[in-house]
Amino acid sequence: MRRWFNAQRHILELTLSALLRRRGKYLALVTVYTLVVFLLASVMFFTHALRREAATLLEGAPEIVVQRLVAGRHDLIPTAYADAIAEIRGVTSVRPALWGYYFDPIFGANYTLLVPEEFTHGPGNIAIGPGVAGASGSEVDYILPFWSSEGRLTSYTIAEILPAESELVAADLILMAAEDFRALFDIPEELATNLTVSVRNPRELPVIAAKITELLPDTRPIIRDEILRTYDSIFSWRSGLLMFILMTCVLAFIIFAWDKASGLSAEERREIGILKAIGWETSDVLQMKFWEGAVVSLSSFLIGVLAAYGHVFVGSSGLFEPVLKGWAVIYPEFRLVPFIDGYQVAVLFFLTVVPYTVSTIVPAWRAATVDPDAVMRG
Amino acid sequence: MIELVEVTKVFNRGRPNEFTAVDGVSLRVEPHRVTGLVGPSGSGKTTLASLIGCMARPTSGRILLDVNGSGSLSGLTFPGGEVTSLPERFLTEIRRRTFGFIFQQFHLVQGLTVLENVMLPAYPTGEPHAVLRTRALGLLEMFDMSRKAESKVEWLSGGETQRVAIARALINSPAVVIADEPTAHLDTKLAREFLDILGDLKSRGTTVIVASHDPLVVDSPIIDRIVRLRDGRVDDGAAD
């Protein structure tokens, strides 16, 4: 066993020196290889972390959201509906929710305005997300002006800047008191954006949703799992789109790598011939080529994956922001919580490292199976 | 002792360009002596040397090796010492343990240092690096090349290249050294120097086989026996 390790060490050393000798060829290869792994891993990390983040946030969301539909469009819902829903067996609470979007013409940004269940700062004050604070250059105690739906300018004092735990959703968020929200958008007391329903037994969700539709035919109950699925499919679709574009890069890389790896130069063939002639077995030559492929592909894989990790979790996924993050403009410091799916990394590994390593061995095997006396005669 | 019985080697068999490089050669190579395979270009010297050195298998005939005089080779045993039908793995093992090769073009690996080139044949044996290095440095010392141990081989002069090639051939302490046209690219001074080294190897008990048509080698007193070849056959009338 020790002899085997020694032999492998010697062969690996020779491989490394061969790589250094042909550094021009291998540098180009490693660069392209790393770039492809970097792009693929970035998309993977990004979409996974994004999906996980959305799922984590939605865990705290209400089990059922009830919207009112008028002519197939989402409309404000009468708060009186809450009483009717509360009567359904299994419902623990029904609460009117107020939220909406506001386009700020000064900063050219969309904000999400929301009335939380408990807003401690009182009317006249607001809590803003870190994205809003960054975009408007605001701090606590600053005043933020809003145009009301009647065209009046109303200002609110910033009482808090929300923590950046989950920037994706909190970045453009503004929390305010119900009175202020109603005044700003001119929503009367008896109407709300939608109703949130809590249920005792999650298994009863579909039954309760059906009962709501039956009781109030102009409403649409949305179960939390459906929202999760929608998020999931949106991210999957977008990442799929990006993956498709990336596949073209991957294909180009495969052709490039195959050409580089499979085309043994005359010098390399001569070297293999010499090694065979001085007493190397075919398997020794193949081991050397295996190490060569492994060193190139593993180092490219590691550099690519690490760079992708940096790009997604330390940087702000600069390359993908426009494609994957949607319409909001406020994402100046978007940082996802690091999350890596081992299974996906393994898939990436087997799709990049293994084929390349094999492609280096095949031509070497062909060259190494020639009779060593070819060197004597040549 | 190495014995060849009716050995024939045919290249490109069954094709229009088929040709017989070695044709029914029977020969005994005595141990601890220098045997010269002599003949004009195309006489089959190189092919015969590569068959003896287990680099290629004969098309027909038998090759028997008995270097230790006991039917075994450096610890490897095989029935009757016959190597003709051994699988490639065993042939490689025998080649590595028993033979050291000096090629016409020397065939050092460019880009590697002198020391690495000398150690190269021993890499797959798995010997500890320190032991291997000491032995390689000892060989370089023997050929007065230790100061160039860390130099790249492409920087060496012709004579230095030749000495490194010899050191490489000796790294696995072979019982037999096979040199194919070793003086073809050397001037007279370097050729004589090479013959001195062969003489030295002989005095240490190494069996040497030299394939050459250089008169300097053929007429050298260090050659114990000359086997003359012509058209792939032993030229009996001229064998010394």
Architecture overview:
The complex is a heterodimer of chains A (378) and B (240). Chain A has 378 residues and is of the alpha+beta class. In chain A, 56% of the residues lie in helices and 18% in strands. In chain A, helix 2 runs antiparallel to helix 12. The longest helix of chain A has 39 residues, at 224-262. The radius of gyration of chain A is 30 Å and the shape is elongated. Helix content of chain B is 30%, strand content 25%. Chain B contains seven helices and eleven strands. In chain B, the strands form three sheets. Chain B has a six-stranded mixed β-sheet, sandwiched between helices. Chain B is globular and about 50 Å long. The relative contact order of chain B is 0.20. Mean pLDDT of chain B is 86; it is low at 69-75. The interface between A and B is large, with 33 and 38 residues.
Describe the secondary structure blueprint for this structure.
The complex is a heterodimer of chains A (378) and B (240).
Chain A: H1 2-21, H2 23-59, E1 64-70, E2 73-75, E3 77-78, H3 81-86, E4 91-104, E5 109-115, E6 125-128, H4 130-136, E7 143-147, E8 153-161, H5 167-170, E9 173-176, H6 178-185, E10 191-192, E11 194-199, H7 205-215, E12 219-223, H8 224-262, H9 266-277, H10 282-314, H11 321-324, H12 342-368, H13 373-377
Parallel strand pairs in A: 5-9, 6-8
Antiparallel strand pairs in A: 1-2, 1-11, 1-12, 3-10, 4-5, 4-11, 6-9, 7-8
Helix pairs in contact in A: 1-10, 2-8, 2-10, 2-12, 8-12, 10-12
Chain B: E1 2-11, E2 19-29, E3 34-38, H1 45-52, E4 60-65, E5 72-73, E6 76-77, H2 88-98, E7 99-102, H3 114-119, H4 129-142, H5 158-170, E8 176-180, H6 188-203, E9 207-212, H7 215-218, E10 225-230, E11 233-234
Parallel strand pairs in B: 3-9, 3-10, 7-8, 8-9
Antiparallel strand pairs in B: 1-2, 1-4, 5-6, 10-11
